[in-house]
Amino acid sequence: MRLSVCTPIDRLLGGGVEDGCVTNFFGPPAVGKSQISMLSAVSAVGRGKKVLFIDTEGGFSVERLNQIADGGKVGKKIILLEPKTWEEQMEAVKKAEVISRKRDIGLIIVDSIAALWRVHIEEKNAKTAIRELATQLSVLSKIARTNKIPVIITNQVYENPKTGRLEMSGSSIVKWWSKNIIELFHVGKPGRRLAVIKKARSLPEERGVEFEIYSKGIRDYKG
After folding, report:
1. Do strands 151-155 and 208-214 pair parallel, antiparallel, or not at all (unpaired)?
2. Model pTM score
3. Side-by-side strand order, sheet with 151-155
4. 196 is in which domain, residue-wise?
5. Any bridge partners for residue 194, and if so which?
6. Which of 19, 88, 125, 142 is close enough to 1 for a disulfide, judged by CB 3.0 to 4.6 Å?
7. Does residue 184 sit in helix, strand or coil?
8. Over the chain, what is the mean pLDDT?
9. Does 197 reside within a domain?
10. Interval 143-182: pLDDT, tens
């Protein structure tokens, strides 16, 4: 089963976000990560399910959510957790496992998985912080597999000082636990964006679609 998101992302992913595993959308700021998260939440509510949304960056907007839902009031179906520190995020993920057992949760979203981790991690605590990130991802993966629901995480990028290239935060750990990885780019003209599959269980890698953000969400790029 797959959860529909929007026309271009559904086409890219063969019908939508896959149940039973972690799907990771990553890229620079303002490229569409939170939009994809909110579109997915609206879609899950449309299935009659509740959504657990862990917002680590303060970007969750009820107004934008209702706009995407075309005036529909979906907020009551969304359980929102807003951790402001790495420690609070660890607690939020623990709560997610409990909530998913007690509520009719059809989707879990973490937007974004490594933002607070990047603030927290230092040379002196690196090993512990890396282990904590891996633990959170393992819990999310377990929830997805046990409940047969999709888990969506978003992630940031950083410039690797050795290569000068943009890479995904928490790279090797997040890659390991994410069964599907989609990179989002700004390309060409303002408003033009590209989504490319970087890892997938059943889809060809490096396949991409162009899209743009508009008032109702995301649509095919029209130029």
Report:
1. unpaired
2. 0.95
3. 78-81, 50-55, 105-111, 151-155, 22-26, 180-186, 193-199, 208-214, 217-220
4. 2-217
5. 185, 210
6. 19
7. strand
8. 93
9. yes
10. 999 999 999 999 999 878 788 887 888 878 999 999 999 9
The answer to whether 206 and 12 are in contact (CB under 8 A) is no
Contact, 144 vs 150, CB < 8 A? Answer: yes
| Cβ neighbours for 99, distance < 8 A, ≥ 6 positions apart | 52, 79, 105
What SS3 class is residue 152?
Answer: strand
* Cα–Cα dist 8/14, whole Å: 10
For residues 17 and 2, the answer to whether their CB atoms sit within 8 Å is: yes
Considering the domain boundaries, does residue 223 fall inside one? Answer: no
pLDDT digits (tens, 9 = 90+) for 41-85: 999 999 999 999 999 999 898 888 888 887 667 878 999 999 999
| Structural domains counted in the chain | 1
The model's confidence at residue 221, banded by pLDDT at 50, 70 and 90, is very high
Residue 177 lies in a domain: yes
Question: CB of 12 within 8 A of CB of 193?
Answer: no
